[in-house]
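Action item from last meeting closed. Structure (404 res):
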């Protein structure tokens, strides 16, 4: 067989899936992908990325990724864009500070520092660079406080340390060091449980669920979210808005987790989250760290519709949502990426490019480091009509797309 007759990567995925006796839905569930993603990889409407191949390979009985990509494709382990601050964040996460002396920072100071860091994440156009600069010191200060404080101050320091780990998880999620992300999840959950703080534990469960879903362990993610809701729900009626905020966020995470596996039950969790926000949170409320708000609930509706493979529903849900109302620059950039995914599902390449350009103008690093955005831009460079291909190539160069 000549190289021209070699099956394409998507065709290889389909053959191996059928040989393994798996439906698309089952492979998607096992791999942490949506059924629509698997379908579009198989029919060639989406490129097979290295990340997707790594997620599917164990369930297809593949040990050598060449079995998916074919002999004519060269794979580089260095191809994924990584942020320059990763090295210093890694050092901060793996510095154990065995010997400590002096006085720790006060919990009031640390709370202000953590809140400021989250505010930076949500308001900076280049949030990864901005947060990457402050994360090492923030991790060091909160780690130190958790060791040196005692009593209630230690418990509060531990809850703030958990938040620092959560921010580190958000920063690291797209930078390719999966083991380091697992470390932030484990450390964040341990700190929250040592704090014996239900809100901190619930937040840590939310972050753990996102990672579990991303590695194909959606059922475990939903179980962790159910447990966390059990901690929060009984106290929502008699507590402040922060409790309702966290409960709504847990339901939103469950909705997205279900949608990623093609489960229409996602809308039940989404409806519950919307009801909590409408009923229990003041008008105009925006969570300081979570950004839970009425606009964010609508953002999740668009995400769920896209992951369920329903671009018409995604566009319907997005119709009345003004992106300027989304109270986070990072989430606004991701919303444009989701709209681009919706256009991509319909094969509307001009709209896909336009929306990716809007995402890049809003939050350049969201597009530069998002695997799905990089994949769409790369495909546009190869597949878009000649009338817009030069624009696609220009965007790809701006965001550092590696496969032109």
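Sequence:
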């Amino acid at each position: 067989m000549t190289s021209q007759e070699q099956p394409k990567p998507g065709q290889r995925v389909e053959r191996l899936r059928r040989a393994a006796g798996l439906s698309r839905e089952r492979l998607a569930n096992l791999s942490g992908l949506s059924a629509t993603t698997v379908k579009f990889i198989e029919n060639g409407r989406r490129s097979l990325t290295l990340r997707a191949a790594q997620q599917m390979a164990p369930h297809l009985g593949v040990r050598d990724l060449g079995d998916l990509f074919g002999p004519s494709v060269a794979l580089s382990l260095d191809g994924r864009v990584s942020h320059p601050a990763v090295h210093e964040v890694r050092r901060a996460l793996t510095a154990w500070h065995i010997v400590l002396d002096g006085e720790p920072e006060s919990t009031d100071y640390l709370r202000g520092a953590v809140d400021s860091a989250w505010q930076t994440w949500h308001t900076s156009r280049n949030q990864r660079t901005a947060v990457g600069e402050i994360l090492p010191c923030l991790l060091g200060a909160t780690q130190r406080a958790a060791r040196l404080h005692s009593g209630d101050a230690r418990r509060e320091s531990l809850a703030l340390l958990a938040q620092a780990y959560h921010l580190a998880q958000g920063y690291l999620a797209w930078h390719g060091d999966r083991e380091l992300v697992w470390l932030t999840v484990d450390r964040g959950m341990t700190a929250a449980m040592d704090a014996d703080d239900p809100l901190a534990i619930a937040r840590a469960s939310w972050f753990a669920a996102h990672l579990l879903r991303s590695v194909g362990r959606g059922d475990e993610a939903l179980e962790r979210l159910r447990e966390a809701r059990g901690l929060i729900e009984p106290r929502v009626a008699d507590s402040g808005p922060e409790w309702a905020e966290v409960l709504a966020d847990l339901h939103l995470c469950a909705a997205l987790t279900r949608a990623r596996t093609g489960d229409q039950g996602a809308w039940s969790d989404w409806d519950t989250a919307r009801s909590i926000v409408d009923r229990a949170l003041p008008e105009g409320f925006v969570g300081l760290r979570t950004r839970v708000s009425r606009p964010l609930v609508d953002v999740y509706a668009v995400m769920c519709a896209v992951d369920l493979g329903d671009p018409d529903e995604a566009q319907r849900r997005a119709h009345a949502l003004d992106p300027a109302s989304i109270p986070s620059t990072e989430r606004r950039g991701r919303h444009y990426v989701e709209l681009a995914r919706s256009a991509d599902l319909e094969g509307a390449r001009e709209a896909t490019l336009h929306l990716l350009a809007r995402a890049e103008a809003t939050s350049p690093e969201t597009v530069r480091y998002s695997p799905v955005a990089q994949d769409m831009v790369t495909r546009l460079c190869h597949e878009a009509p000649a009338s817009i291909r030069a624009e696609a190539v220009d965007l790809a160069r701006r965001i550092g797309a590696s496969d032109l």
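Note appended to the action item: The CA atoms of residues 10 and 41 lie 5 Å apart.
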